[in-house]
């Protein structure tokens, strides 16, 4: 997508410099920074400390982390150590493990002399595939937006609520939940987006709102608890969110607060859709609540807020009393029964085993 007049992906390899470049998302929306990462420790830090975030982008970053390490040391020991270090950075997003497995399966049979070049090609393929996957999510999600638009008066927008940032910043390009929005705008369908702030890191306020603003999409920023009220008053036509891990039975694990939006949507007959690449499906897990590990992050993210002061400086400010600890589960699980449909690159599936297997029949033998 574009920032100003320049097209950016969220991660790319600069062949001339021999470095991987990323958009450092910690500084948005106040500053747009592109940084280079080279060493394995830098890749681990970028993922763990959320310079990059979003399940697809985490996976792509890990893939390039392996490639850069193979350029430095292509031994079996280095490959195994890189896999372990990167895998430990974020426990919930399944794309991290998926991308690391993709890299290891390709590289393990090769000689050390072959590994670096193949690793860079594979990482680039993972990134390119993510872009096309997300584009197709948008194509299929567009059909859902069109169905609602057809019930509207001429010029009346489709009101879409989203939670956290499942935008192009969370992927390599297009985004998952935002891809149908971008496709709708390109198709000339008027939309309006309700953007949840998404405490405690405020990815909605800092990232999704920045994306919407950058692309001229009408939107409003909401407190996290306002969505249910809007649904009660008919101001939300559909909800589209992303997911960091989806079970074989259709449960979805997404940013904390998603479950409450799904409950409110069901109570008010608002369709609740989840947009996801198939790499986000964990076919080994059935019960999301019991089986998906939920990342617990630093309580400072709860007790402090990051923002820009009136004098223009960007800083972190404490909002809680001294001595008050913060609890910070980063994700929650929305049961499949609350999900209207799963928007994938192959189409829209019912949130169930049969629904998913209908789109991914090659998984039946393992089911």
From TrEMBL:
<comment type="similarity">
    <text>Belongs to the EIF-2B alpha/beta/delta subunits family. MtnA subfamily.</text>
</comment>
<dbReference type="InterPro" id="IPR027363">
    <property type="entry name" value="M1Pi_N"/>
</dbReference>
<feature type="site" description="Transition state stabilizer">
    <location>
        <position position="164"/>
    </location>
</feature>
<dbReference type="GO" id="GO:0046523">
    <property type="term" value="F:S-methyl-5-thioribose-1-phosphate isomerase activity"/>
</dbReference>
<feature type="active site" description="Proton donor">
    <location>
        <position position="244"/>
    </location>
</feature>
<dbReference type="InterPro" id="IPR000649">
    <property type="entry name" value="IF-2B-related"/>
</dbReference>
<dbReference type="InterPro" id="IPR037171">
    <property type="entry name" value="NagB/RpiA_transferase-like"/>
</dbReference>
<dbReference type="InterPro" id="IPR005251">
    <property type="entry name" value="IF-M1Pi"/>
</dbReference>
<dbReference type="InterPro" id="IPR011559">
    <property type="entry name" value="Initiation_fac_2B_a/b/d"/>
</dbReference>
<feature type="binding site">
    <location>
        <position position="203"/>
    </location>
    <ligand>
        <name>substrate</name>
    </ligand>
</feature>
<comment type="function">
    <text>Catalyzes the interconversion of methylthioribose-1-phosphate (MTR-1-P) into methylthioribulose-1-phosphate (MTRu-1-P). Also catalyzes the interconversion of 5-deoxyribose 1-phosphate and 5-deoxyribulose 1-phosphate. Part of a bifunctional DHAP-shunt salvage pathway for SAM by-products.</text>
</comment>
<dbReference type="Pfam" id="PF01008">
    <property type="entry name" value="IF-2B"/>
</dbReference>
<feature type="binding site">
    <location>
        <begin position="254"/>
        <end position="255"/>
    </location>
    <ligand>
        <name>substrate</name>
    </ligand>
</feature>
<keyword id="KW-0028">Amino-acid biosynthesis</keyword>
<feature type="binding site">
    <location>
        <position position="90"/>
    </location>
    <ligand>
        <name>substrate</name>
    </ligand>
</feature>
<comment type="pathway">
    <text>Amino-acid biosynthesis; L-methionine biosynthesis via salvage pathway; L-methionine from S-methyl-5-thio-alpha-D-ribose 1-phosphate: step 1/6.</text>
</comment>
<dbReference type="InterPro" id="IPR042529">
    <property type="entry name" value="IF_2B-like_C"/>
</dbReference>
<keyword id="KW-0413">Isomerase</keyword>
<protein>
    <recommendedName>
        <fullName>Methylthioribose-1-phosphate isomerase</fullName>
        <ecNumber>5.3.1.23</ecNumber>
    </recommendedName>
</protein>
<keyword id="KW-0486">Methionine biosynthesis</keyword>
<dbReference type="GO" id="GO:0019509">
    <property type="term" value="P:L-methionine salvage from methylthioadenosine"/>
</dbReference>
<feature type="binding site">
    <location>
        <begin position="53"/>
        <end position="55"/>
    </location>
    <ligand>
        <name>substrate</name>
    </ligand>
</feature>
């Amino acid at each position: 997508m574009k920032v100003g007049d320049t097209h950016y992906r969220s991660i790319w390899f600069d062949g001339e410099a021999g470095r991987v470049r990323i958009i450092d998302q910690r500084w948005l929306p106040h500053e747009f920074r592109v940084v280079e990462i080279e060493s394995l420790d830098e890749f681990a830090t970028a993922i763990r400390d959320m310079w990059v975030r979003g399940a697809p982008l985490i996976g792509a970053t890990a893939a390039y982390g392996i490639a850069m390490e193979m350029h430095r040391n292509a031994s079996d020991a280095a490959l195994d150590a890189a896999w372990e270090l990167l895998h430990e950075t974020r426990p919930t997003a399944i794309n991290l493990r998926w991308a690391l497995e993709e890299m290891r399966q390709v590289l393990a049979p090769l000689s050390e002399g072959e590994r670096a070049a193949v690793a860079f090609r594979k990482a680039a393929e993972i990134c390119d595939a993510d872009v096309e996957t997300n584009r197709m999510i948008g194509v299929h999600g567009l059909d859902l937006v069109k169905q609602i638009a057809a019930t509207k008066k001429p010029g009346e927008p489709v009101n879409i609520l989203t939670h956290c940032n499942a935008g192009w910043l969370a992927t390599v390009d297009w985004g998952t939940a935002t891809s149908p929005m971008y496709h709708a705008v390109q198709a000339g369908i008027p939309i309006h987006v309700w953007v949840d702030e998404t405490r405690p890191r405020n990815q909605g306020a800092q990232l999704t709102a920045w994306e919407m603003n950058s692309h001229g999409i009408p939107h409003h920023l909401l407190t996290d608890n306002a969505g249910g009220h809007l649904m009660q008053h008919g101001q939300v036509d559909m909800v589209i969110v992303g997911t960091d891990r989806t079970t074989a039975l259709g449960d979805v694990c997404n940013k904390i607060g998603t479950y409450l939006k799904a409950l409110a949507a069901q109570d008010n007959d608002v369709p609740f859709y989840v947009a996801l690449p198939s790499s986000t499906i964990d076919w080994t897990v059935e019960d999301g609540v019991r089986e998906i590990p939920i990342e617990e992050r630093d309580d400072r993210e709860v007790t402090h807020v990051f923002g820009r002061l009136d004098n223009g400086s960007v800083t972190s400010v404490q909002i809680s009393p001294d001595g008050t600890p913060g609890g910070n589960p980063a994700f929650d699980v929305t049961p499949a029964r609350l999900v209207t449909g799963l928007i994938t690159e192959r189409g829209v599936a019912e949130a169930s085993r049969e629904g998913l297997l209908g789109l991914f029949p090659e998984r039946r033998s393992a089911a």
